[in-house]
Amino acid sequence: MIFDTTRWDWTSGPLAEGLACYRSERFWHAHEHWESVWLASAEPEKSFVQALIQVTAAFHHFQRNEIAGALSLLRKALKRLNAYPEEFGGVAVGALRTGLGAWISALEADKPTNLLIPPIV
User: What is the domain partition of the chain in residue ranges?
Assistant: First the structure.
């Protein structure tokens, strides 16, 4: 697969705005910013952004103590991210997958208290 992510700019615009929200754990707002990117994207970028949106939605559910919803969305995001290389669009996808896997395991064991939110960029 060949991906063209040269137009992705994490320093300005909706990607950067969503990233700032993600980093400050305002996950719903990150979701909203990235949704505009998703709507304007074509494959394979569209599915990639959808995975990022699912991650933000999962952590939003977690903040609301909706563990089943968080787990479901994390699993869906991880499944989507498995189709991408270790690095895509400026995102360390391999590290993100590892972090999401740790969250899934911890939530399944009801022990998420010592985990950090995995970085996107």
Answer: 13-108
The SS3 assignment for 63 reads helix
Q: Which single residue is written with the structure tokens 């040269």?
A: 6
How many C-alpha atoms does 11 have within 13 Å on its Cβ side?
Answer: 1
What are the pLDDT tens digits along the chain (121 aa)?
A: 334 455 678 888 899 999 999 999 999 999 999 999 999 889 999 999 999 999 999 999 999 999 999 999 999 999 999 999 999 988 999 999 999 999 999 999 988 777 888 888 7
Return all residues near 93 (Cβ < 8 A) that are at least 6 apart: 81, 84, 85, 86, 87
Q: Are residues 93 and 84 in contact, defined by beta-carbon separation less than 8 angstroms?
A: yes
Q: Across the chain, which distance is largest between two alpha carbons, in Å?
A: 40
Residue showing tokens 């933000």: 56
Helix (H, G, I), strand (E, B) or coil at 88: strand
Amino acid at 12: S
Give the domain 13-108 fold: Hyaluronidase domain-like (1.10.3450)
